[in-house]
Amino acid sequence: MEELIQISPGIDPHGASSGQTGKEQQAAGVGILLQIMMLVLSFVLGHVLRRHKFYYLPEASASLLIGLIVGGLANISNTETSIRAWFNFHEEFFFLFLLPPIIFQSGFSLAPKPFFSNFGAIVTFAIGGTFIASMVTGVLVYLGGLMFLMYKLPFVECLMFGALISATDPVTVLSIFQELGTDVNLYALVFGESVLNDAMAISLYRTMSLVRSNASSEHNFFMLVVRFLETFVGSMSAGVGVGFISALLFKYAGLDIDNLQNLESCLFVLFPYFSYMLAEGLGLSGIVSILFTGIVMKHYAFSNLSESSQRFVSAFFHLISSLAETFVFIYMGFDIAMEQHSWSHIGFIFFSILFIIIARAANVFSCAYLVNLARPAHRKIPLKHQKALWYSGLRGAMAFALALQSIHDLPEGHGQTIFTATTAIVVLTVLLIGGSTGTMLEALQVVGDSHDGSLGETYSLPENLERNHTYIAPTYDVESSSGNKFKMKLKELHNTASFSALDKNYLTPFFTSNNGDVDDDFDGPTPPSSRGNGFHRYG
Amino acid sequence: MEELIQISPGIDPHGASSGQTGKEQQAAGVGILLQIMMLVLSFVLGHVLRRHKFYYLPEASASLLIGLIVGGLANISNTETSIRAWFNFHEEFFFLFLLPPIIFQSGFSLAPKPFFSNFGAIVTFAIGGTFIASMVTGVLVYLGGLMFLMYKLPFVECLMFGALISATDPVTVLSIFQELGTDVNLYALVFGESVLNDAMAISLYRTMSLVRSNASSEHNFFMLVVRFLETFVGSMSAGVGVGFISALLFKYAGLDIDNLQNLESCLFVLFPYFSYMLAEGLGLSGIVSILFTGIVMKHYAFSNLSESSQRFVSAFFHLISSLAETFVFIYMGFDIAMEQHSWSHIGFIFFSILFIIIARAANVFSCAYLVNLARPAHRKIPLKHQKALWYSGLRGAMAFALALQSIHDLPEGHGQTIFTATTAIVVLTVLLIGGSTGTMLEALQVVGDSHDGSLGETYSLPENLERNHTYIAPTYDVESSSGNKFKMKLKELHNTASFSALDKNYLTPFFTSNNGDVDDDFDGPTPPSSRGNGFHRYG
């Protein structure tokens, strides 16, 4: 984007000096036009493939391929540099505009119960596991270099590579999980790990890059852990706080009456981004923050909206995140095809693939062992879930973005080697693992598994999860009789005792206008009868 | 945006060399955070003011003021340059991302009948009138300079200033028109003129800037007119073409069954942007193109969507355009407070305000005279409408963006003077005209005027327009009996004969799946009964 200095629409008069702006503007038009066409193509192709139940080429892989092919064609033909500029992968664009909607939608469409009941395991995998994986990869790559098996990187550079390549991608595997339907606990583990380990990988990468520049003699291992926990807890609190504020705002502002659907939606849509930028502005992790804002807003703020706004914002976030997800893969594919790669170190690529497989195994099986030690017999993670988790570690946009950054950070050619290897790993894992996840899930017999509430073969798992699973949004359980309520309450207290009780007795009544359980008089200024009349002005 | 080289979330380790990226990233976070907070504030303030029927500070003026105040505070306190970078008004951001949704929504929410029945008048005002206004302003400013009344600009620079300052802004005045309710023909005139004259002003500005750089000895007056018409007709055809293609796609793709609401909405949302970028890529005017795409998509493609998608996309475009509109004014206010201004030429500002008032009078009254010559007695534009039109010419973001560009185009300080004058004119007209439009409309007695179908005092005029006015979307008139149909048809043929007949008999049956008039068998693959079941998966 920085290449475009002056762009404005209107006539391009093919002039000499003033024609420069006209040309730039036309280039921007052509660039964005191509991107839109690829987006449309991806959506249509993805739809057709899904229609025909062809799971070997999931939507993400299809988008990546489209990007690669169009990028390759643009590389062969002599496309103007001003058009190319629109296709360079900009890390800031990725982190500030593409990533937030994807992560928010993850949190917003999440079934909170399996996520929180597996929270300990998820944190173990995400923090401990990612640390193990980074270290194992880094050490193995260093040893490989020492033994002349592969390109020799200095030790700290090896650890940086280990950190960035340990960020797994949630998009592709989860979309297959959703389509095939799998165990909710496995889904929660894979999902939770892949979202949280991005934050861990970034923080490890940054710390290593700091160690490399020798600016941190005081940063020992202990400090590193403290700093990570600080960031994590801080970001989580910021996210949860913003979520609660939004819930109170929508409870008391009375926007769900009076045809104010547009205002209501505008404000609702701005909160997640606010949370992300608040965390970033405080030097915390925006990803973690927006994830928790998503969870809290869905659970509390969402039910304070008018019915039409509820329908609208769900569809809105779904739309925005699908666009962002698809775009990320196209964008990545195109950039991979356009960038300079140093293919001289093919051995480095081969061995690093081998090493990340080993490192992921070390991560998953050791952490699962630890988690199983702490869990009671009926809640242990079965071996087939561990295998599925091991298999699901494909690398995506996060690793790619960090590798691009490493080119700037490591100027002596090391960055270039890391970038090429990461690129190859991303393409291979997305195409191979993405294409074979369906087969793997079937082979491990975790498809439609009824371990803790199974899912049919449907298109939209997160919504179904909520319905099939015992979690019911506070608004909707007003109908259930009081006898049932008592049983449900007892059961819930038994299940995930403390949090559920806190939620039911204090948080839900306080943050939502319709608690549907104890005191229906504890109501916001909004009579429920006025809901659902916000949409009629559109249409 | 170009100041930010590497941004990524995660921990900011306060380090020396690697801390640079951390700081940039934090600055981006703080910058965007401030922008979101101002957006929220504008929405809330606008809502409160509207609630209390306080029309002296419309939402746009409030946003501009918020931007000015926060910008002023940021200027006094020593805000970091890296944060400031996020608030500089980038012309490319405005033209590529903020303007398209605003213009599309204008077309999408437009009542086509008053627009097309006044099309001749609108084109006369937009093309002839803007040309007259530019020339009058330019010549007066040049004469003023010759007579030492004001800063002396060369003649071509005067004409450039005349061109850019003739772009009137549709946002503020129209929002007041909508809230107070006014004559549909007056609304159509003001709206149509302000949208189309943007395209004219840009093209005039670019031609003048070309004449200045002496690159166009062959560009005489005749060529200029031909080139403008070429651009206009080309852009209109591109826009209408994209609209028709989208209508056919949604008619035959069968996406309105089968819970494919997300896919349907994704594709629908991409088409307008496609149209804008197509026109830009061809060197045409994106504004004109996306405006006509909006009109065509609403009229034909929209009724081919499933009911839930119809509701969703209406709300979506409304949301996006409100966000963009509000943001434009905040952004402009902030930038005005932050930029360097050369206040030494205060006389220039004073006289140019005087001259644009004269030029606008010359534009409106002469064009209205011409239009009235051609119109039959009962359709003449009454004097009070002419006065209202004269009064409504406030200058907004388009003039501002072109003035910013003139700083690059005219480096000898002339650009700076033009920019300062434009800034002052924008702030004054938005605050003064915006605040007094309500009073003016009441004084001229055009509020709730029942000249050709009046509107009550409602919040959302475009939707009401459609309902109160005879235009009924093709989908909804299936219920009317055949006797009524015949009468309606006769009446319509009489009214705006040729286009309506063409629309009714050929375009609507061909491009929509539900024509509701002649042959109900001429139906797309979509049974109407399947509609309206797309939303239940959200919620």
From TrEMBL, chains A, B:
Q: Where in the cell is it found?
A: Membrane
What is the catalytic activity of this protein?
Answer: K(+)(in) + H(+)(out) = K(+)(out) + H(+)(in); Na(+)(in) + H(+)(out) = Na(+)(out) + H(+)(in)
* A GO BP annotation: regulation of intracellular pH
The secretion signal range is: none
Superkingdom field: Eukaryota
Under the GO molecular function aspect, what terms does this record hold?
Answer: potassium:proton antiporter activity; sodium:proton antiporter activity
**What cellular component terms from Gene Ontology apply here?**
endosome; plasma membrane
| UniProt domain Cation/H+ exchanger transmembrane: residue ranges | 43-442
The record describes its membrane topology as: Multi-pass membrane protein
Which of UniProt's keywords are assigned here? Antiport, Ion transport, Membrane, Potassium, Potassium transport, Sodium, Sodium transport, Transmembrane, Transmembrane helix, Transport
Q: What is this protein called?
A: Sodium/hydrogen exchanger
Name the source organism.
Answer: Trapa incisa
